[in-house]
Amino acid sequence: MGKTYINGIGCVSAQKTFDTVFLEEAVLNESLNVLPLELPTYKDYISPIAARRMSKAVKNGIVASTIAMKEAHVDTFDAIITGTGMGCIEDSDKFLKAIIDNNEEFLTPTSFIQSTHNTVGAQIALGMTCKAYNFTYVNAAVSFESAVFDAKMQIDADESKTILVGGIDEMTDYTQRLFKLAGFIKNDEEGSFPILNSKSKGTVFSEGATFFVLENKKSTSTYVEIVDIEMVNSLEVSEVESKIISFLKQNNLEVSDVDAVVLGINGDMEFDNYYKSISESAFKNTPQVYYKHLSGEYNTASAFGLFVGSKIIKAQQIPDILKANAITKSEIKHLLLYNQYRGIDHSFTLISKC
C-alpha cells in the first residue's frame, strides 16, 4: 500500500494566499457576511483573450492549479480530480436568465456548455493537453474530500503516481440572495459577523479554489503525508467523539497523539455545537485551529482547511489569527481536520509530518 504526499499547493481565496508563504497578509473582516475574493492578476496565468470567456471558477481553478504545479515541479498528471458543490453557477445563472429573457428562443449554447460542474477540470486538462483520468465529484460539503479519497485510493493501489486534486466553488449575486432568504448567510442587519462563539444562525459565505499536487513519493517541496480520510453523511453531536476515536484507532493513534485539530467552525450557532462538543472534551488539551473567519463558508471550504493544516505542519507554527485556544505544542506531527455543514457531510482527515 503506497503513501500519499502533498508536494504542491495553490490557493485563491478571500485572503492573499496566491503569492505569499502562508497568511502573513491575512485580514480579519467581521463587517461583511459575504467575503470578496482577493483576486490574482489573471493575465499572469491566462491569456486575456481566453480569460474573457471564462467564469470566476474556471479562472481561479487555473490559477490555483498552476501555482500548485509550479511548486511541485510537475507539468503532467496521471489524473485530474476536482470537487465542487455548486459548479460553475455563474454560467448556469446566465443560461437560465437567457432562457427567460429570450422566451426560450434563439439561445446561444456558450453559457450552457460552460455551466457544467466538470468545466474547471476540463479546462485545466485542455490547457496542458492532459488526456488522463478526469473526474469531478459533486457531493455537497464532502465534494473535495471525495476527490482526495479517490486520488488516495489510486495512489495506494499504485494506479497513479502524480494526481492534481482541487476544490472549487463560486458565489453569484443571485445565489447570495437565495442563501440569505434561506437563512444560510447571516442576516445583514446584524452589522458584525464574528465566527468564534457566535450567537446567531447562518454563517459568513465566500468562494475559492484550492489545488494540491498529490504524489506517491516525497520531494523537496513536500508538505505532509495524507494518512487517512473518512466521510460520514450523518452523525449526532454525541457520536462525533467516538467516531474520531475510532478513526484514529484504525490508524494506530489515540486522541493524545493529535498535536493540533483543525475545526470547520463557521459561526452558525445551530451547528457549531458539533465542534464545541469535542473542543471541550476530547481535544480540550489540544491546540485548536479554525479558518472560516478568513476563508468564509462554501461547499469546498475544507480544501482551504487542508491548505491551512499542511502549512502549519510544514512551518511547525500556528499563526495567532488561526488559534481557537491558547494551547501550544513544541512539535506538530499529527494533525486532524474535522468539518461538517449544517449537521451532515462530516469529514475526518488525518495528515502527518513527513
What does this structure look like?
Helix content is 30%, strand content 20%. The protein is an alpha/beta fold and 354 residues long. It folds into two domains: 4-215, Peroxisomal Thiolase, Chain A, domain 1; 227-352, Thiolase/Chalcone synthase (Peroxisomal Thiolase, Chain A, domain 1), CATH 3.40.47.10. The chain has a ten-stranded mixed β-sheet, with helices on both faces. Helix 9 (273-279) links the parallel strand 7 (260-263) and strand 8 (288-290). It is globular and about 65 Å long. The mean pLDDT is 96. GO terms for molecular function: 3-oxoacyl-[acyl-carrier-protein] synthase activity.
In the predicted model, the low-confidence regions spanning at least 5 consecutive residues are none
Mean pLDDT: 96
Principal-axis shape equals globular
- Biggest β-sheet: count, sense, barrel? 10 strands, mixed
Strand order of the largest sheet: 3-2-4-5-1-6-10-9-7-8
List keywords for this structure.
354 residues, alpha/beta, Peroxisomal Thiolase, Chain A, domain 1, 2 domains, 3-oxoacyl-(Acyl-carrier-protein) synthase
